[in-house]
Amino acid sequence: MVAASMLPTIVTGDFNTDANTAPFDRITGQGLLLDTWKTAEERLTEEWGTFLNYRLPRRNLKRIDWLLVTPSATVLKAAINVTHFEGDWPSDHAAIQAVVNLAGTAPRLERRPVSREGPNLAGL
Questions:
Q1: Which of 59, 116, 117, 119 holds its CA 20 to 30 A away from the CA of 32?
Q2: Could you tell me the pTM of the whole model?
């Protein structure tokens, strides 16, 4: 399905196997999908294991949750988010996050004047 598409593709999920295993290699080995953690221009966190099971994060555990993209996407930043809120975890897994440019090139941001009525949204 990914090979047949002309569009950039993102695949994410809990794959229940580490990123350094035969199943991972089978999915990424042909170069159709790339691991955002490995290809990010900048990593914002440690490489935490992603199955926390409501415990404190640890390194050297399996990274079983993946965020994969097609090669046309540029992965600017990646993180494994182990933030907990008021002592509780939002999930038994750590969130995998990435800043991805699907166009494959750095975005060119155009500054638009803001009027007293609010932002100028013409042309969006």
A1: 59
A2: 0.78
